[in-house]
Structures are given as C-alpha cells and as structure tokens.
Specification:
The complex is a heterodimer of chains A (361) and B (540).
Chain A (H helix, E strand, L loop, with lengths): L12 H16 L4 H18 L8 H22 L8 E8 L10 E6 H27 L2 H5 L7 H29 L8 H28 L10 H26 L5 H25 L12 H23 L17 H9 L16
Antiparallel strand pairs in A: 1-2
Chain B lengths: L1 E9 L8 E8 L4 E5 L6 H8 L2 H4 L4 E8 L2 E2 L5 H4 L3 E4 L12 H12 L3 H14 L15 H14 L4 E5 L7 H18 L2 E5 L3 H4 L5 E6 L2 E2 L5 H7 L5 H9 L8 H7 L1 H7 L19 E10 L2 E11 L4 E6 L5 H8 L7 E6 L11 H7 E4 L12 H12 L5 H9 L14 H13 L5 E5 L7 H16 L3 E5 L3 H7 L2 E6 L2 E7 H7 L6 H6 L7 H11 L1
Parallel strand pairs in B: 3-8, 3-9, 6-7, 7-8, 13-17, 13-18, 15-16, 16-17
Antiparallel strand pairs in B: 1-2, 1-4, 4-5, 9-10, 11-12, 11-14, 18-19
Helix pairs in contact in B: 4-5, 4-6, 5-6, 15-16, 15-17, 16-17
Classes of the chains: A mainly alpha (361), B alpha/beta (540).
Chain lengths: 361, 540
C-alpha cells in the first residue's frame, strides 16, 4: 500500500525558537572553539534543510556580523592587549608610551598568541549565539511567532515583532537602497558610501516597522474583548513581572559569574508568574486560528534537541569539565566528547522535522 | 454610518491644519469617492475614520468622529477593526504575515472567528479577488498590483462594515482595477458595506461612486452628486473634460452615457483627423535602446523570456501590460539593475553595454526612476538632496534645483523628502535623475499618487525632453498618460512582447488600454481632449 503523502507544513514557530534558545544557552557556556564552530555548523545545517522559503534567509547576515565581531576583537586585542600574559610572542608592535596614571593600559607592544586566542574564543562565543538567533529567525519568522504571543502582552508583542523584523528587514532594505544608489552613479563601496547609506536604510526600515505596527493595530491585533481596564492592567503587570523574572533567571543561568544557584529559582518563579498571566490572558484571548500550527511529536523532538546541549553544557561548566573553558595556553584545547555528542543532537531536527511548505517563488 | 462633527486635524510642526472644520455624514451602504489634489488632506481624512489619526499618527484632532456609533476618541483602531477596514496606499509595508493565504486569514484570526468560518471565507475571498492561483505565493515576490489585491482581500475577508481605501487602483493595470472595482461594487450593492475611497484615477472610479466628497487644502465639501461634483471639481477625468469642452448637460460620467451624447460631436469632427504626434518632434533612428533576446530570471522564475525591442532616439515609448508581466524587470535590466540570463542590451548608436559599465559611467547613458522614488532620496532636506545630486552626477551646482523648479509646482526646499507627498517625491527623484542628463530616461510607474495637474506637468516635461533628443521609456498602467505622451506602445504579457506599434493604433484597438476619449468617439481614433479641442478649433 502506498504511503499517504503528508501535506507539507511548517513546524510550530515556538519550537524553533525554543530550540534556538537552547542552542544559544549551550554556546554561551563554553569558549571552546571546536564546540562553538560545531554550534555554528549545526545552525547552518538545520537552516539549510528546513528554512521557511517564504522569507529572506537572514542567517548569512548574522554569520557575517559574527565574523566582523571576531575580526574586530582580534585586531583590538593585538593593539591594546587584554591582560592575558602569554609566552608565545607573535609580533612586537611599536608601543606608545603612556603616562604612569594610565597603568594597565597599553597601546602596541608585544602581541602574544595566548591573548589573541583568548579574544578570538570569546568573540566566537558571541558569534555562535548570534548564529543561533539568526537560525531561529530563518526557521520561523518572528511574525509567525507573534500569533502565539498572548494578547495581554500586546505592547510588548508589538515591540518585539517590530524589533525582530527590523534586522531581516534592514538587510532587504540595504540591498534595495544599494541598488538604487547605483542609479545615482555610486557603486555603494567604501567607508564614506557606507556612512551615507546608513541613514536612508535605517529610515526605510523604521518606516516599514511603523507601517507594520499601524497595520497590526488597524487590523485588530491585541483587541481586548469584554475586559475591564483594571483587569487588563493587572494581567499586563503580572505578565511583565513574570517576563522580568524569566529574563533575570536566564541571565543568572547564562552568566556563570552571577551564580547559577540564584538563576534557577528566579527563572522558575518568573516562568510561573508569566505562565499564570498567560493563562489568565488566554482565557480572554478571542483570537482563533486558520490552519494553526499544531504541536506534534516533531515539535517536542525539536525542543528536546535544543534542550540537550543546553543542559549538558550548563552541567559541564558548573562541574568544570575539562575543555568547556579551555586553558589559556597556545595549544589545541581538549574536546569533551559528551559535549560534542550533545551538540550533534541539536542537528537532529534537520531530519526529524516536517519539510517546510513549498512556496512558489 | 460615519459622522464627522467639526473635525479639524493639526499635526505638530505643520504650518496649517490638515483638515479644517469638517462636518459630514456618510450613510450606510454608499460608495463615497474622496476627490482632491495631491496633499489636500485626503489621506488624513481617511485615516481619521478608523482612528489611526490621531491614535497612531500623533497630531491633535478636535471635534468628533463616530463610526457605527463608536467614537474614535474612545475606541482605539484595534477596537474599531471589526467595524472599519483600512487599506493603505503602500500595501507592501502593511503585510503582517509572509504568505497570501495567511495574510487573508490574519484579520479573521484576530477577531476570533471560528476556524470553519475562516476556512470558508478565505476560499470565498480568494475567488472573489482572483487570488486562488497565488494563494501559496510569498507576499514579497508578488507584483505591486497583486499585492494591492491581497491587501484589499485581506481587509475585506475580515468582514468590516466600512471599508476605507487609499488609492486602491493606482498600482493596478486597467483590467485588474476593473476587477477590484467590480468587487467593491458588488460588496456595496449586495452586502451593504459602506466604502470610502480616495483615488486620483477618476476615470476608473467616478462612475462607480454614489456620492463624491471634494477635498481642497483641508476643506471638505458635503456629499455631492457625482455629476454635480465633477462640474465643480478642480480635477476631473477626460470624459468630463470632453463634456466641459462640448457643453454636455448633465455631465456624463461613464463611457456609455457619453457615447449616447457624442453622435453630434462625431459628426462635427467628421473627416478631420488628429495630427500625428510625430510631427511635433524629430524621431531619430531606432537605435537608442536595442534589446535582443533578453532573458531575466528572478528568484528561480523566468520573468522575461526572449524580449526584442528597438527604441527610436527622441521618442516616448510606453510599456504596458498586466501586473507582473515583467515591465519593471525590463526597465531594471536595461538600467543594469538585474543580471541577465541571456541576450544583450545596447544603448545608443555606438552599442554601449550598460552591464559592462561602472555605475558612474552608466548614469550618463541610462537614468531610471524606480517605482518607489523614495529609495533614491537620502538627504534630510530637499535642498540638500538637490545639492547631493549635483555632486553625484558632476553637474553644475544648482542644476537639480532648477530642474525641480521646472518639474514641480513649487516644493519647499527646507522640507524632509519623506514628508513630501507621493507625487512630490516622484518629482524630486525625477529631478535628481535628470541632473545626470541621461540619453535614455526610464520611468517605472511614474503616475502613482499624481493628480491630473501633476500628471499634465509630467507629460509636458517628457514631451519636452523627447523634443530635445532624450529617449523616454516608461512603464505605466495609466492609459491616459500613455495617450498624452506616447509615440509608441509596447504591450508585454508573461515576459514576452505581444504588441508593438504606434500609440494611436495600439491604444485605439485594445479594449483594455483604450483611453476614455477614444472609447467615446470610436470608430474615430482621438486620444485626448486636447486633440479634439484642437480639431474643433481648426474646424471653426
């Protein structure tokens, strides 16, 4: 018997964003370049297999920004140093003598491989987190995520969507403005040209974002039916408190220096608060769905695939496994096998998620 | 249904109020047309109806606007969404989702309709607006006209009792515009929806209107009978122009009414023939633009397939055709904005390849004013923009400014280009491009948002440029502009040239692209009111 052809569908956007968040958490806990490059590789792989063809793929731009960050950090470290004392001298730059009160600051001087590597690893971590954000953006457009944002969070929701669509929109606009620029006889290359492009690109993107917000408003987004102002305010307050809690908790979890002990309880409390406000809001939320994305086993698999590396790397960094934070020596860092396997798990959705809808070009 | 009581709107920093003391009552189930010159306050008037002015735009609104008994001062636009649907001028910036079908469903989702109803209404709406073949398309890949139809469909699907549309047909080809208007007509007559629309292309809409409101410098007339309004209005369609010329009464608004009265005029014109436009200027050999076997594919789809075209020096050629036929892509390919998949583009007798030139050299030969002229504008004042243009094109200081003064009806040089009206922005962009004095001028849909006055100035300017030897190639849906200026009309369909010939022949023989005067006077082939006036003067 022939197998029934499944209808192509898009995976639930929340699943992709939770997956991206998990991977970003994992990336933020390590400075091991092998692991970080693996994170970026997983992002590229999954996006390549499952990105939503209806939107412009923003991942390349996020990767480009990451590359710029890494390059910038390395150059700045070579010029200014970063307080890491190393033995392997790569080059000696002419140094600028500074007065005594500027002790601890230097310009030029010896450049050691150790300090460069440290800077590169640290910047690579940021690049990897950006790649995760870009991947989530490419896999599920923030506009789709918006449909699941509770009506109680109306104002926050608009801001988030306008903010999230801003970056991809910026790229489209930059391309368009650059093309239009050639019509005025400019090739759009060079620093001065870049500076001149910035304002019109930002303006266009802002205008679009405002247009989007106005359109959402006039099409009834965030309507509160049959609710009083006080109850709406209470729900919003609750939701905001919850959100702050979640953010504080996440910060605690992500930033090991703040102490993971505080992070988890705050996160749980925040999640509870936010969850309850969402429940209150959802009961009044009049919105309904046309072909709403369903939450099936593939969504659960995707979220788990993101959660596994997050948990493993958080545990690894708390317990201080070797290679999670490589030593400051000019040698190939040890690669913890468990972490590698955990990160590879995150690539599973590239196969175990539904093929995205076919969108005619 | 909609009442305005002494409504005035004043934006911060604006020298004069945008609306002054408007008192108006629009009854249920009427199709009301708002008529006024560019920048007269039409958009502001429309946006007060669903409360975007002042809730979203800022500014101060005094007086009271009520819609279906709801005061817009107390209800935010989102609460009015079940009652009022607003289709904005530029639909692409208002899409909330990424795919046609999702966009149509979006409004119904926020309203909380159950999913069975949504499914049914989505299908009905897609059929009504002819969008079924596009349902799975990504919105950003649609042509301007298709996007406009999606925007109207998305609003209509949500089932509001009032539909407000700002220039709904300005980006549409004549046939698509007719379809949209027919569906508006149907929802007004069959479903009792109140429709308020502003439109510059009166020739398309005025005969559909039940009532007309004239707007001028913030003053708004009461509801007028369309024929009476057209007698008073500063802007009017060609058929009304013809009626004013000949003195028909009552003023006919549709072709059909006009034809019934036109027998005498046809007899009077008798055997005199319109003077061919080519007499007015010397048209050079057909080597200004030579396109040979051009193929362009965008996003994996072939948009142009083997287009051959040769344009004569010093002529005005109009590219016409359905939305999405490839007109913009053809212009873009000539200006080296798109990579070619095959074929060649050559400019001038020397056979210059624009694709082989740097941008700086290219602008001397080809200038393109894109569909969104604001993409060309970067500076923060009009004056600075003109100065930057002089510098970009290496023109003498003041060139762009002089051009602008010639083209426009007076633009304040201290204004930010983004605060200009759509028509004024086009004029500024045109001045910028012209300061490079290109041999070939390409214009992509230049009449969007232009009133008749601005369009007339544009037409005169293009004719003047052609007389000086500039070759003009413009893509437009505006048959009246084509009738005014074109020597030659090329019709594209599905990426191929289907018709190519002298303007009079092509326009008069096509039911979709014939201008109003031609339709009224067929079988005689007059294109414009001015031609008829000239002939009558010669006879007398």
């Amino acid at each position: 018997m022939a197998r029934l052809q499944r209808r192509a569908r898009l995976q639930h956007p929340a699943a992709w964003w939770l997956w991206g968040l998990g991977l970003a958490t994992a990336a933020s806990r390590t400075t091991n370049p092998v692991l970080l490059l693996l994170v970026i590789g997983v992002c590229v792989l999954v996006v390549d297999a499952r990105h939503d063809p209806a939107t412009v793929n923003p991942l390349p731009a996020f990767l480009a920004i990451g590359a710029v960050i890494v390059a910038f950090r390395i150059v700045m470290t070579a010029l200014l140093g970063n307080g890491i004392v190393g033995e392997t001298v790569v080059a000696t730059l002419p140094s600028v003598p500074l007065p005594d009160w500027a002790a601890g600051v230097r310009i030029g001087g010896t450049v050691t491989l150790e300090s460069l590597l440290y800077a590169a690893y640290d910047a690579l971590r940021l690049a990897a987190v950006l790649a995760c954000l870009g991947a989530a953006n490419a896999l599920a457009s923030p506009r789709r995520l918006l449909r699941y944002l509770p009506a109680t969070l109306y104002d926050v929701g608009t801001a988030v969507v306008v903010g999230l669509t801003f970056a991809p929109q910026l790229l489209t606009d930059a391309r368009e403005v650059r093309a239009a620029r050639t019509l005025r006889g400019r090739d759009g290359r060079g620093l001065r040209e870049m500076a001149r492009l910035t304002v019109p690109v930002l303006e266009t993107a802002f205008e679009r974002s405002l247009g989007l917000a106005a359109s959402m408003e006039s099409r009834g987004y965030g309507r509160a039916v049959r609710s009083t102002t006080t109850s709406r305010r209470a729900a919003t307050g609750l939701a905001l408190a919850g959100l702050v809690g979640v953010l504080a908790g996440l910060y605690g979890l992500l930033d090991s220096s703040a102490g993971g002990v505080l992070g988890l309880p705050v996160l749980v409390l925040g999640a509870l608060l936010a969850g309850s406000s969402l429940l209150v809001g959802a009961s009044r939320d009049p919105r309904s769905g046309h072909r709403r994305d369903r939450w099936t086993w593939t969504e659960t698999v995707t979220v788990l695939a993101g959660a596994v590396p997050a948990v493993v790397l958080v545990v690894g960094s708390v317990q201080g496994w070797e290679g999670i934070v490589p030593s400051q020596q000019a040698e190939l860092p040890a690669v913890p096998l468990v972490a590698v396997l955990a990160l590879l798990v995150a690539a599973v959705p590239a196969w175990l998620s539904p093929r995205p809808r076919e969108v005619a070009p | 249904m909609i009442t305005f009581e002494h409504v005035s709107v004043q934006y911060a920093d604006a020298p004069a109020p945008s609306l002054r003391d408007v008192t108006l009552e629009i009854p249920e189930g009427e199709l009301v047309l708002v008529v006024g010159p560019t920048g007269s306050g039409k958009s502001t008037l429309l946006r007060t109806i669903n409360g975007l002015v002042p809730h979203f735009s800022g500014g101060t609104l005094t007086g009271r606007v009520t819609v279906d008994g709801l005061d817009t001062a107390e209800h935010r636009p989102r609460d009015l969404a079940t009652v009022v649907g607003l289709v904005e001028q530029n639909p692409s910036s208002t899409f909330v989702t990424d795919v046609v079908e999702d966009e149509v469903a979006y409004g119904m989702e926020t309203m909380g309709l159950d999913s069975t109803t949504i499914r049914r209404r989505v299908e009905e709406t897609l059929d009504l607006f002819g969008l079924t073949p596009l349902r799975a398309r990504a919105l950003r890949t649609l042509s301007g006209g298709q996007q406009q139809r999606v925007a109207i469909a998305a609003l209509f699907a949500a089932g509001p009792r009032v539909l407000v549309l700002d220039e709904p047909t300005s980006a549409l080809d004549p046939v698509a515009a007719e379809e949209v208007l027919a569906s508006l007509h149907r929802i007004v007559h069959d479903l009792g929806v109140t429709v308020v629309l502003a439109e510059h292309r009166l020739e398309r809409v005025v005969h559909h209107a039940d009532r007309v409101v004239l707007v001028d410098e913030g003053h708004v007339s009461e509801l007028l009978d369309p024929a009476e309004a057209m007698l008073r209005s500063r802007i009017y369609p060609p058929v009304v122009g013809l009626s004013r010329l000949v003195g028909w009464s009552p003023t006919p608004l549709s072709i059909r009414d006009a034809r019934r009265k036109a027998a005498a005029l046809r007899d009077a014109l008798g055997t005199s023939t319109p003077r061919p436009v080519a007499d007015l200027r010397v048209i050079g050999p057909a080597d200004a633009v030579t396109v040979d076997g051009l193929r362009v594919s965008r996003g994996g789809r072939i948009v142009l397939d083997g287009v051959d075209l040769a344009v004569a020096r010093g002529s005005v050629t109009t590219l016409m055709g359905r939305n999405g036929a490839g007109k913009s892509t053809l212009l873009g390919a000539i200006a080296a904005q798109h990579r070619l998949a095959g074929g060649t583009v050559r400019i001038g007798a020397a056979g210059d390849d624009p694709h082989a030139r740097s941008a700086r050299e290219r602008v001397r030969t080809v200038g393109l004013v894109p569909q969104q002229p604001e993409l060309l504008l970067y500076a923060d004042t009009v004056a600075a923009e003109c100065a930057a243009a002089d510098e970009d094109f290496g023109a003498a200081p003041g060139t762009a400014r002089d051009l602008l003064d010639r083209i426009s009806g007076g633009i304040d040089p201290a204004v930010h280009p983004r605060d200009l009206s759509e028509g004024q922005r086009l004029e500024l962009a045109l001045a910028v491009i012209l300061s490079g004095s290109p041999e070939v001028l390409l214009l992509d849909e230049p009449t969007r948002g232009l009133d008749y006055g601005a369009k007339k100035r544009l037409g005169e300017m293009l004719t003047g440029l052609a007389a000086q030897g500039t070759t003009v190639l413009l893509a437009t849906h505006d048959v009246e502009l084509a009738a005014e200026v074109a020597d030659r009309v090329v019709i594209l369909a599905d990426g191929e040239v289907v018709t190519d010939g002298p303007a009079r022949e092509v326009l008069a023989s096509s039911p979709a692209f014939a201008p109003q005067v031609t339709k009224v006077l067929l079988p005689q082939t007059w294109l414009t009111v001015a031609e008829v006036a000239g002939a009558l003067a010669r006879i007398a």
